[in-house]
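Dear all,

This email documents one entry for the complex benchmark we are building for the journal club exercise. For each entry we list the sequence lines for every component of the assembly. Then comes the predicted three-dimensional structure of the complex as a token string, followed by one or two observations. Please use this as the template for your own entries, and keep the labels exactly as they appear.
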Amino acid sequence: MHARRRLELIIERMAAPRACKVLEASGLTGYTVLPAVSGFGGHTRWSRDADMSASSDMVVIVSIGSDDQVQSALTELERLLGSHIGVLSVGEVQVLRPDRF
Amino acid sequence: MDIALATLLSPIVLFFLLGLAAALLKSQMTIPEAFAKGLAIYLMMSIGLKGGVAISKGDLGWDAGLVMASAVALSFLLPVIAYALLRFTTRLNAVDSAATAAHYGSISIVTFVAAGQAISAAGLQSSGYLVAVAALMEVPAIISALIIAHRGAGQGENVAGSDRGELAREVLLNASVVVLLGSLIIGWISGEAGMKSIAPFFVEPFQGVLCLFLLDMGLSAGRGLRNGWRQLGPGTVAFGIYMPLVSACLAAGVAALNNMGTGDAALLITLSASASYIAVPAAMRLALPKARPSIYLTLSLGITFPFNLILGLPLYIWLARAISPGAA
């Protein structure tokens, strides 16, 4: 097994394409976008079924890459999160096929 | 009084109240998200087609063009008034005020559909081109609010990952504009003969589908209120009720100047008094991401929409009758 960084970004759906562009520009070789159902933050509960416009829906973007790739994405993602609602975390993971990341 | 009672006791309002009550009582009832989105598209297609067929019968003249131009001007103006009122009467900051103002210049298509049902029940006629007016009034308020935000709040920073075309795409090509205008044109081209072949799907089941959609709207409004009411101060809640009335009075003036019939005037007044909760919130998340959705969504969907549906519609029909007493 080989050590890599796993980046997890919970962000509002409308800003997800912006985040994906940042990840692609950072050289990360892939990411997956998952829907989030409901949650609590900023003194407010949110839920997918309370918003007809789906504009306040949240998604989770998961990506795995090398230290350099993730570091390069973090600077721009920090700027993105200055404007949009979201939570970013990075952790270490073990991958089977290192040439893919 | 009869219209008020008939509106309140109509199945669509009663289903909305059922959904609202269920959500406020924390019922677990839900309508699947994809199904609700399908219902919204169905309703927009249906009213777009009906409007297009009406236009194909010669419903579009210079008068209609003047009404459309006046409605666009109104949609540009309303956010300016809304912004001034919000800044003067509430503690909302400039960005939240601008984003909220955009919702009150744009329109709610479901309120428009409900108004169509209410004016039919009141024995009034309306013109098909009002559907085009509805589609045209979706966008100007967004532009107006962005100008206010950029001037008043200095919101114009370059957000990471953004591109120049994304906001224009969201504003001009959102589902409401594409489906409404597209269906209107299809209805216009295919005319009454074309409509006949699809009427069993788009005309007869319309009322039932509207009830289902209003049930979902009630659930959304109730859950939105439950989740976001703490964010709204008394001044903001009051704005959600008096702003539709301010808009209604301005629209009544525009309708009187254009010599509109009672049914058409009632629809224009309703469009102006309604607040968006689908197209504008999505545009605001892109254009003014620092504005709080818990304020503008709760206000437009949780306060203004129920107010318009339950009390506003009879009031707007009464207002339309007052300014065009001889017309029908």
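Observations: The mean pLDDT of chain B is 87. The domain at 2-26+33-155+164-323 of chain B is CATH 1.20.1530.20 (Na+/H+ antiporter like fold).
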